[in-house]
Amino acid sequence: MRSNRAAAAMQPKNDSMTSVIMLMVTLFSCSYIAGRLWQDAEIRSQLISIDPSIRYQDKDSVSVDETLRLIDCKEQQKKLANAELELTAAKNQGYKPMNKTIVEGHRSVVVGIFTSFSGRSRRTSSRKNWIPTGTALKELESDKGIIIRYVIGRSLNRGDMLDKQIDRENEETEDFLILEDHVESEDNLTQKSRLFFNKAVNTWDADFYVKMDDNVGLNIDMMGSMLSSHRDKPRVYVGCMKSGTVINDPNAQWYEPDWWKFGEEKSEYNRHAAGQVYGLSRSLAMYISINSAYLKEYKNEDVAVGTWILGLDTEHIDDRNLCCSPNAGLFLILSFFFIVL
Questions:
Q1: Which backbone phi and psi does 146 adopt, to 5 degrees?
Q2: Which of 9, 84, 98, 118 is the most exposed place for a label (fewest CB within 10 A)?
């Protein structure tokens, strides 16, 4: 009997608690629905500001999710348009890459002298005969805008004695351009040329980039004068132009594994500059840098460079002063290398 009276007394309390819970659920639901409606109206207002035509659509025809997708699409279109404007501006500036580290100041010419681990004696002779050293080298750069660097890669066994010898020599002379991504080898000069032009144009802003071997020398003043006469030309490829028969004999010195790409047997190479010394204007060197990953690396470096720019609107300048022959009358034989020009 007492338990029945207690249960009857508790019944109003339970009903009161249930009512409170239901009221809270109702208030929460109303708040959620109001928030969603406000969010829908806010997003629709933003969408109308982007596309006014939506104002005349049925309000229920565009859901919140569809609205968000449309806004995201509009934002992507804006980003694409901005990217296209930036690309156009980059083209007008000569496709200058954004990640390059340009040494301050414009230069006239960058000369890269290809050397090797065994070329110490040739480098020493060059420094004695025609390449300035120390303060004179820095003055050549600041006064005449001419950069001269020995170009070399790294040893197959990176960090070994060969690498350390080059590092020590560079600490003394400060005239090396070391290609960290290249393994130094006489069998891979094409890759070395590609990496040289890529690094040079991203290090120095110059009018011309010259590649030469370490067994020839240059008359620096005459070289600068010769190249400056072509400065106003947009795309210049200057050197001792030649062609020559494509070598398809695997046992021959200048064998080209891809000889068949140049035609039938006894075909001739396209016109190209001899590898001892040649120069490219900035636009051509930049072209090699930009397309570096896609350029075919033919066995012979000079052929490869000539082939890379064959399809471009380029002026080939056949300067016989750059032909390494004592009979040209413009060479001084110094023990084991020529002075060109």
A1: -110, 120
A2: 98
Pairing relationship of beta strands 146-154 and 216-218 according to DSSP bridges: unpaired
3-class secondary-structure state, position 150: strand
Shared domain for 250 and 314, answered yes or no, is: yes
d(CA 332, CA 175): 24
pLDDT digits 0-9 by tens, 35-59: 666 666 666 676 666 666 555 555 4
pLDDT tens readout for residues 152-178: 999 999 999 999 999 999 999 999 999
Taking the CA atoms of residue 149, residue 152, residue 158 and residue 164 in that order, the dihedral angle to the nearest 10 degrees is -50
- Based on the structure, what is the number of domains in the chain? 2
Residue 103 belongs to some domain of the structure = no
Q: Which of 309, 156, 303 is nearest to 236 (CA)?
A: 309
Tokens (6 digits) for 119: 């070329």
Alpha-helical (H) ranges within the chain are 2-50, 64-92, 120-129, 135-144, 161-173, 189-201, 220-228, 282-290, 301-308
